[in-house]
Amino acid sequence: MKKNGILGRFFLLLCFLFLYAPILVLVVFSFNASKSKAVWAGFTLDWYVELFHNDMILNALWVTLAVSALAAFLSTIMGTAAAIGFRNLKRRSRNVFMTINNIPLTNADIITGVSMMLLFLFGVAAFNGSLGQLLGVKWNMGFVTLLIAHITFDVPNVILSVMPKLRQLDPNIYEAAQDLGDHGFHAFRSVILPEIMPGVVNGLIIAFTLSIDDFVISYFTAGAQTQTLSMVIYSMAKKRVSPEINALSTLLFAAVVILMVIVNLRQASQERRRKMQQAALTAHS
Amino acid sequence: MKNKAISYPYVGWMGLFVVAPILIITLYAFTTDDGGFTLSNFQDMAQYTSAFGRSFLLAAIATVVCLLIGYPLAYLLARESGWLHRMANMLIMLPMWMNFLLRTYSWKFLLERHGLINTLLGLLGLGPFQMIDTQGAIVLGMVYNFLPYMVLPIFSVIEKIDPKVIEAAQDLGADSITVFRRVILPLSLPGVLSGITMVFIPSVSTFAISRLLGGSKTLLLGNLIDMQFLGSAYNPHLGSAISLVMMVIVMVCMAVMNHFGDGEEGVTL
Lengths: 285, 269
Hints:
The complex is a heterodimer.
Chain A: H1 6-29, H2 46-51, H3 55-87, H4 91-106, H5 109-129, H6 131-135, H7 143-168, H8 171-179, H9 184-213, H10 216-221, H11 229-237, H12 243-284
Helix pairs in contact in A: 3-7, 3-9, 3-11, 4-7, 7-9, 8-9
Chain B: H1 8-29, H2 40-44, H3 49-79, H4 83-93, H5 100-111, H6 116-123, H7 135-160, H8 163-171, H9 176-204, H10 208-213, H11 221-230, H12 236-263
Helix pairs in contact in B: 1-12, 3-7, 3-9, 5-7, 7-9, 8-9, 9-12, 11-12
InterPro entries (chain B): MetI-like, MetI-like_sf
Main location (chain B): membrane
Family (chain B): Belongs to the binding-protein-dependent transport system permease family. CysTW subfamily.
């Protein structure tokens, strides 16, 4: 294809300006000495210091990281197992399950959120009225319901990421492993898992990202006591976000940028090495 | 591989946490507080017709704007060679790593009466303009937040188009406009359709964007539902009815669109 002209380049520049300007504003104002908005009152690191003394924010950060890591981990295991199992089902039941699996992906978040909230309210009431009464415990919506909700919207994404890798898998290699005396889980671990690993890892990353970023579903399923970072930000943003939140987001954003740069550099150097090897091979032959 | 049993835990999970909630919300929509069957929840929705209309209108505008910006953006990025092409996916996705509420809040910051944009315009002797707390601000928030969902699928289909197909069209005498209209556009249609879905659904159901950028006066469907479940107007039965109707309308829209899309030159992916 032809290269872009000056006009195209200008359009690209405008688009990226649009995408990045608000983020730049957040980052710049996390260093602003004044709490006020559009006024620059000099450079400070105070908000970064205060951030580490703000228990509400730190607690919410902890909840967010814990629920995201747990949900990503559990849904990767359940999703990978489900994807493998689905491959062995009859076409008809597989189609039914895949349609249900797609519901959380296509439904609006708010509907997933409120419908699960109704289920949890129902479950909590049923538990407190029966078993809870016997044991003298009172259950409330909180971390557990939050985790269930996160797993529910994470698994479909893991399945979508693992499925294509399974489809590429040669069905004969598993049987070959079995013929050679490798059975059950061991055959799975030594033959299938290495082949589908990129899909599994990708699914884990997607699940973690979605969980970290989720607001709507958490908002309806976390109950009154538990708060994720997004929920803290929402309750603040209705009035005024404290600059500590700007500081925290800047730190998280910087962490992601650094991670991305490392991953990209590694990929680029791997590619270069592969190309050099290829060049060497063709030169020899 | 005969181990289909390992999918059973997830099948049970789906039954409990995907299917059951949908059944419960349907049940709630058709019942009163004491459990009797009723259609009054749907009748009560009549007072919110304007919110329905507003939500679908604003979401439609946001989707069209996303398409008008997103398609050329994806197309130009796919045509670039070198680092910009390699980094394109990452550059589009990176902003999504900043919390979406904060990014939205940042616009509030920019659009306010004494915000950055009005201050800058003031230096040029213009304004101040009322930008925050308008429906335009809500559309801007939707476009800003969901633009990547439009760009990414379009970029990935355009990128996969075999350059030989384009060369063949050129060899057959097609000029660049014809190549675009007859080759690239039809081949990129699946990306466009999934982009439209991925922008429209979160736009029509949002409540955070309208709450942060639209002030308290502009109610969208998401705000109505939020109010019925966690807000002042607590009434989960009415909230369920609104959710159900919204879900059905969205499903019908998407089905019509996908059907319409399938008819065009039989593009499949």
